[in-house]
Amino acid sequence: MMPVIIDKNFTKGWLTRLSGTGNITVTNGVLKCTGTGSDEAMRDYWIPVLPGQKVEVEVMARNLSGDVRVALELLYYSGGIAQQEYVKVKGSDWRRYKLSLIVPLSATQQYVRLVLGKWDSVNTTHDGEYRDPIVHI
User: E strands of 1-137, at which residues?
Assistant: First the structure.
């Protein structure tokens, strides 16, 4: 597997999704995503893929409060989620979390996205921090 060069300051190549009072800050390479209720505060990194390809990600994360997650999503052309793998971040200490996803051979999707932050569908308070993302394909 080959590493993908990814901006560890969460700017170049990262997309921001915000709604309500959701908030994102980046300080010294640490992404902080906060929100309450149905707010959204996410940063996405889109990775071009081919059928049969395996995508692995690692990221340091910690849970300051609520339901903090790291996810990989295989997308339909329409933007809907065809497949999702995620892990809940537990504890307030920094830990490395790893996820992988294999693109089905029958897939017509061309992108997997790494998602960090507060989901609007998780109707809870969320304060999470992330750093040092690594992607391998």
Answer: 3-4, 14-19, 23-27, 30-35, 40-48, 54-66, 69-75, 81-88, 95-102, 111-118, 126-136
Among 26, 59, 38, 52, which Cα is nearest to 119's?
A: 38
- The model's confidence at residue 21, banded by pLDDT at 50, 70 and 90, is confident
Among left, alpha and beta (phi > 0; psi -120 to 50; other), residue 92 is alpha
CA distance 58 to 35: 23
The tokens for 117 are: 């932050």
Tens digits of per-residue pLDDT, 40-88? 899 999 999 999 999 999 999 999 988 888 999 998 877 788 899 999 9
Nearest to 47 by CA among 131, 121, 109, 130: 109
Residues 95, 40: Cα–Cα separation, whole Å: 23
State how far the Cα of 21 lies from the Cα of 48, in Å rounded to an integer: 31
